[in-house]
């Protein structure tokens, strides 16, 4: 059960990383303003801190890092 929850939390974080990357691309191409970019990024960082605290309650740091890196590798392969 804990692994299912952890995978869901990490998948949420993975989606936030994609959103942050897209926001940066939009900002760099002058599609959104610097304020909009900063607002989105700061909210994502707060969410990331919350998710990491929740993950640390149910997973060791090593397990979290391993799962997170697997998801990032999958993302880079796409």
Oligomer designation: single chain
Helix and strand content put the structural class at: mainly alpha
Given as residue ranges, the uncertain stretches (5+ residues, pLDDT < 50) are none
Distance between termini? 28 Å
Largest sheet: none
Total helices: the number is 3
- Helical content band: over 70%
- What number of structural domains do the residues give? 1
Strand content: under 5%
Overall spatial form: elongated
Summarize the helices and strands and which ones pair or pack.
Blueprint: H1 2-28, H2 34-58, H3 61-77
Helix pairs in contact: 1-2, 1-3
Can you summarize this structure?
The chain is mainly alpha-helical and 78 residues long.
Question: Notable features of this structure?
Answer:
78 residues, mainly alpha
Can you characterise this structure?
- The protein starts with a helix and ends with a helix.
- With 78 residues, the protein is mostly helical.
- The longest helix is centred in the N-terminal third of the chain and has 27 residues, at 2-28.
- The model has no long low-confidence stretch (mean pLDDT 75).
- It contains three helices and no strands.
- It has one domain.
């Amino acid at each position: 059960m804990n692994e299912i929850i952890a995978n869901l939390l990490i998948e949420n974080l993975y989606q936030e990383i994609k959103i942050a990357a897209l926001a940066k691309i939009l900002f760099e191409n002058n599609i959104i303003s610097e304020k909009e970019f900063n607002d989105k990024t700061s909210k994502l960082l707060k969410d990331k801190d919350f998710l990491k605290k929740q993950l640390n309650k149910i997973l060791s740091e090593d397990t979290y890092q391993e799962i997170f890196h697997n998801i990032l590798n999958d993302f880079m392969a796409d």
